[in-house]
Structure formats: C-alpha cells, structure tokens
Specification:
single chain; 96 residues; alpha+beta; 3-stranded antiparallel β-sheet
Length: 96
Amino acid sequence: MDEDEQKFELWCDHQRQGVVDYLGRQRLAHGEVGEWPAWDVYPHAALWAVESLKRPGFTLAVSNALPQADLAPLLSLRGGMLLSFADDDDMWREEP
C-alpha cells in the first residue's frame, strides 16, 4: 500500500468514526455504519451508509472536512427538510 492509499484509509477511518460519534451524541438509534464511504470526494466529503432501525435497508449520513461555520445554517435547513421527508410515509413507495 502506498502513502496516498494509507492517507485515504486513515481519512476514511476518521470520517467514519466522526459519523459514529455524531450519531451517538445525538442519541440516534441505528444499525451498522458502512466500513467504507458509499461515495466520497477525498479529502473533502463522504456519504456513509447507515442502517436504519425504523426502515429496512440503509440511509445516508454525510461526513465532511469542509468549513462548517459558513455552511451550518444551510446544512441545518436542508437536514431538517430531509428528516421531514424521511418521516413522511407518503413520500415512500411500497416495493412490489
């Protein structure tokens, strides 16, 4: 494994732990968190699969290394909208 791959793995480990820590601080019940990001733009942001206890399958959590002070209000608003969509049963189709 070369140095760039080692840096990427270390970054992934750190980002994943950040997601796990955040879920714990927020006292959000969840299942498994993916071992690797479902999507990433190293070293800026990653999406992680987080197993839902309420609905079978996975949802996504964002981890990032972007400056948060400028983005916090926007991310808070968008996060609230996503949570309201997730909780609205009319937004989800039943699988055939």
